[in-house]
Structures are given as structure tokens and as C-alpha cells.
Amino acid sequence: KQVERALTQAMTAGQLSLMYQPICSLQDGVVRKLETLLRWTHPTLGSISAAEFIPIAENNGQIIPLGTWALRAACHQARRWNDITGLAVTVSVNVSPLQFAQANFVDVVREALEEANLPASSLEIELTEGAVMRRIDMVKVCLRELQQLGVKIAIDDFGTGYSSLSYLRDLPINCIKIDQSFVRDLSTPRRAPQFALALIEAVIGIADTLELQVVAEGIETRKQLEMLRDLGCTLGQGYFLSRPLAEDAALEAFVAPA
Ligand code: G
Ligand code: G
Ligand code: MN
Ligand code: NA
């Protein structure tokens, strides 16, 4: 309750910020994109994790203004980085199913891009399988509009939902992010490494056929990285590669030579 009340003021009080986690090539470690992660630091409650406050915001509707804030901030940051580096820096922004279900979501995205003067191709939107499967007809229209704008679409936490694989073929998706639970299972003998291996291999096979990118999430060890590379996975993210970084460190990581 205290957190919920405090959250209503977080945005206007300037308590929100973004961190940026590199998504890297597993061949050479070069940073290819940056996932933006919302952070909230309250003056007395301290730092409150997104895992805690995002569900609260989804319950009380606050996720709409918070999500819009994050989207706009990410577009402005990408624009600044593009200007500084002369490179096309792509930012990947998490979008809650509730944001995505807004009738004017595509307009919100278009306005954020225009306001930041950011090319749409520098923005990727991360949706979970659940968000995509929920109202498939409406989702199809919305994703097509985003695609026409030039925005990229990634399916986040892939493998944890209960969806049909054929939607990967039928929807304009650019990237599949394999959920970190499968990467963890790869190197946990007690769990089911064979299943995780088979799932990751299958996803990479489908993605190759459909010409989609694959990102393995939650890589925490060299062993996991090597296994994923051997499976043919080209992109990855996780603490072994890099923690989420503040703005300056993220820029350095992006321009650093391999
Ligand atoms: O980075 P972290 O482990 O704190 O993220 C926890 C959860 O919060 C993840 O599911 C992540 O996708 C979500 N999240 C982080 N930033 C944002 C954001 O800007 N918008 C939305 N909708 N979710 C976010
Ligand atoms: O739901 P989503 O995939 O957007 O959530 C991303 C969350 O995963 C963020 O909170 C981020 O901080 C966290 N994360 C990123 N890399 C790792 C990792 O290597 N291990 C673990 N446990 N969490 C990670
Ligand atoms: Mn994500
Ligand atoms: Na994820």
C-alpha cells in the first residue's frame, strides 16, 4: 500500500530512470542492441525492483503512464547515442500486455519516435507470448501497423507461454528471446538439460527457417555461453556478458572494440 501510494508520485518526482543491458554477439561479444529496464529509486524506501512495482502498476493502471514514460525516455536516449556514435543504436523496450492492449498504442509509439526524431528501425518492442496470444486478431493488426512504421518486434520470455508455434510464421516478428529458465537448465544436471537443449535447438531451427533473430537470455556462465554458441545461437544477454548498465557505461560498452 505504501509502495502503491509512492508509485503515483514516482514519475513527477523524477524518481524513475532507465538501465541498459547489452545484447551481444556470442561470436565476438560485440554489443548489438540494448534492452532498457525501468528503475525506481524512492528517497526513503530506497530502490524498488521492477519485479515488485511493475505488477502493482499493472494492477492499478499506472503501467500506462509509466510505460509511456519509459518508451519516450528510451527513444530520446537512443537518439542521443545515435548522434554521439554515428551508429544505429537499437534499444529494446519491454511493453506490458496492458499497454499493448490500449487502442492507441501504435500512436503512442509513433509519437515517441517523432518527438525524439528517432528512426523507427532503432526501436524494438518486447512483448511476452501471453500478450501476443491473448487477442490474436487485434494483435495481428497492431503488429502489422508497428511493422509498417518500421519498428521491430521481439517475443520475450519465449517458451514459458502456451502458444502455438505457427504464430511465429503468421505474425511480423523479428526476434525470439529464449527465456532464461532454459539457459539455466542447460547447466543444471538435476533439472532437465536434455529438454532445454532440445527446445533451444528447435527454436533456433524455426528461427533460421523464418529468418528471425534469436537471443538467449540469462547467460550467467562461460559454460552456458559456449553451449549456446555450439547450438548455433548467435545472440545472448545475461550477467556473464554484462549487467544492466547506466547510460554512460552503456555507451562505452556499445562503442568498445571487441
Ligand atoms: O530488470 P528487472 O529484473 O528488474 O525486470 C523485472 C521485470 O520488469 C521484467 O519482467 C521486465 O520485463 C519488466 N520491466 C522492466 N522494465 C520495464 C519497462 O520499462 N516496462 C515494462 N512494461 N516492463 C518492464
Ligand atoms: O522479463 P524480462 O526478460 O524482460 O526480464 C529481464 C530481467 O532479467 C531483468 O530484470 C534483468 O535484470 C534480469 N536479468 C538479466 N540478465 C540476467 C541474468 O543473467 N540472470 C538473472 N537471474 N537475471 C537477469
Ligand atoms: Mn525483456
Ligand atoms: Na525475458
TrEMBL record:
Q: Which domain of life is it from?
A: Bacteria
Show where the EAL domain sits. 1-258
Would you tell me the protein name for this molecule? Bifunctional diguanylate cyclase/phosphodiesterase
Entire protein: shown range: 376 to 633 of 645
